[in-house]
Design the sequence.
């Protein structure tokens, strides 16, 4: 048993109280002090790059070629340390005459939220824990992290990396599952950063309400890729296939389903099929492959397999893929045609290597289709026609969008990242992540 897992409630309360006291000190920390801490963290991340590859492979055979999760963490640290001093500066604003005008001083200062809780997922366990941690620390908070129990090797490594850099009263990792998460949610955290499914997200928000903790909710949903007739089909198919089957389809911001015009569907499907078979082979990568990740565990495998079987039993046709193996939690990259929008596969987030292709008559129909469903985390448009692409963006709502690619917005530290409605609340990364972990406090000094 891990030391953390045997922590009694009393010990946890002790860590929490020590973090509360430390948070009061860190509140006064300078940009230079925070930068020094982040640079030490960066060194530990760099020293563990190979260990990250190994842990991710042990967890779900994530191939080394797809396991560069530390890259974005390092880019984030570099970006934040370059800008933090400027971001932390109080912002001077004018004062109305009836409040003293120029004789008064009005400013907005940024304060850390205080003691934060992270509940993080398994699909990019290192990236989705350590990248937001950069924002949290830059803003001067303390934090208790509970990584996912479904990727135990990665969670253990996260704990080791953290313990090599931070004392417990600054950052503390507590491994465990939903029971440990519930225990943590009883504590009066100031901010809760949750990444995971929407169902559990609602449980977390209810618990946050007991203490009026602010929340960042990074959730999931069904992200469409809309193919306009003007798109470069070969280019679009290449990008969609790569981003979809990366990590075995277990990416919250990847394409969940495709919408293409009914007149051009066969042509686009031919491009997708050709690309999949070129990248993974006509029979798929195979259960021996070390270049293709697996579904994270048998429960998730069975869930995705059920979606596939149900679709095939109810009129969907298999274009390529569909190979499964129960022992290996393996499903080959799978392309589906003739998918009825009322099937289960179109009702829940797939989060696996199944790619349904649906059709529209006009671009307006595609827009209506998206607007009749929950607001997605990502919406992607492939088009060479700027007017058409702009029309799709301005007529829909999504957490983020990319024109002529999928999910690349996540890679930019200049862009805010997050969901909207059912796909999330709050914004992360770069300046926006720093702000999400800060309180804006107005200070008015009167004569
Ligand atoms: P999950 O909801 O099962 O688990 C996420 C975290 O919540 C884990 O740490 C888990 O231990 C904890 N948890 C589980 N049950 C809990 C409970 N009853 N009370 C409190 N905490 C609990 O999510 P997951 O399966 O790990 O991740 C997959 C989902 O996450 C997908 O829907 C995906 O789209 C979404 N996701 C979103 C983003 C994003 O940035 N928006 C990123 C990755 C994943």
Sequence:
């Amino acid at each position: 048993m891990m030391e953390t897992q045997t922590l009694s409630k009393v010990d946890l309360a002790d860590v929490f109280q020590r973090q509360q006291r430390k948070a009061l000190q860190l509140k006064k920390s300078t940009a230079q002090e925070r930068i020094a801490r982040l640079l030490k963290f960066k060194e530990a991340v760099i020293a563990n790059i190979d260990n990250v590859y190994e842990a991710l492979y042990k967890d779900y055979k994530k191939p080394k070629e797809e396991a560069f999760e530390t890259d974005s963490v390092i880019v984030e640290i570099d970006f934040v340390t370059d800008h933090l001093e400027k971001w932390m500066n109080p912002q001077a604003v004018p004062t109305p005459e009836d409040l003293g005008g120029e004789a008064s001083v009005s400013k907005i200062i940024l304060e850390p939220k205080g003691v934060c809780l992270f509940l993080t997922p398994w699909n990019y366990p290192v990236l989705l824990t350590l990248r937001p941690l950069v924002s949290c620390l830059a803003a001067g908070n303390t934090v208790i992290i509970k990584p996912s129990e479904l990727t135990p090797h990665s969670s253990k490594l996260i704990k080791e990396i953290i313990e090599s850099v931070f004392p417990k009263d600054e950052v503390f990792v507590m491994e465990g599952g939903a029971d440990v998460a519930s225990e943590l949610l009883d504590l009066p955290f100031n901010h809760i950063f949750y990444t995971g499914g929407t169902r559990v997200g609602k449980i977390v928000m209810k618990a946050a309400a007991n203490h009026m903790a602010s929340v960042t909710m990074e959730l999931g949903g069904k992200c469409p890729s809309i193919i306009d007739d003007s798109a470069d089909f070969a280019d679009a198919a290449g990008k969609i296939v790569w981003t979809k089957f990366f990590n075995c389809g277990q990416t919250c911001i990847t394409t969940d389903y495709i919408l293409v015009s009914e007149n051009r569907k066969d042509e686009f499907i031919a491009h997708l099929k050709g690309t999949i078979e070129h990248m993974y082979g006509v029979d798929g990568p195979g259960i021996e492959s070390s270049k293709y990740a697996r579904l994270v565990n048998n429960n998730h495998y069975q869930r995705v397999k059920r979606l596939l079987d149900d679709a095939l039993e109810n009129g969907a046709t298999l274009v390529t893929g569909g190979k499964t193996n129960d022992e290996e939690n393996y499903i080959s990259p799978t392309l589906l045609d003739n998918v009825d929008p009322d099937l289960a596969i179109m009702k829940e987030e797939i989060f696996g290597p199944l790619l349904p292709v649906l059709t529209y008559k006009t671009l307006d129909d595609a827009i209506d289709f998206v607007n009749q469903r929950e607001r997605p985390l990502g919406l992607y448009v492939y088009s060479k026609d700027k007017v058409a692409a702009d029309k799709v963006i301005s007529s829909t709502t999504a957490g983020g969008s990319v024109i002529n690619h999928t999910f690349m917005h996540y890679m930019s530290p200049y862009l805010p990242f997050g969901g909207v409605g059912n796909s999330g609340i709050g914004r992360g990364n770069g300046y926006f992540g720093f702000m999400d972990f800060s309180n804006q406090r107005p200070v008015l000094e009167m004569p």
About this structure: The mean pLDDT is 96. The two ends are 61 Å apart (CA to CA).
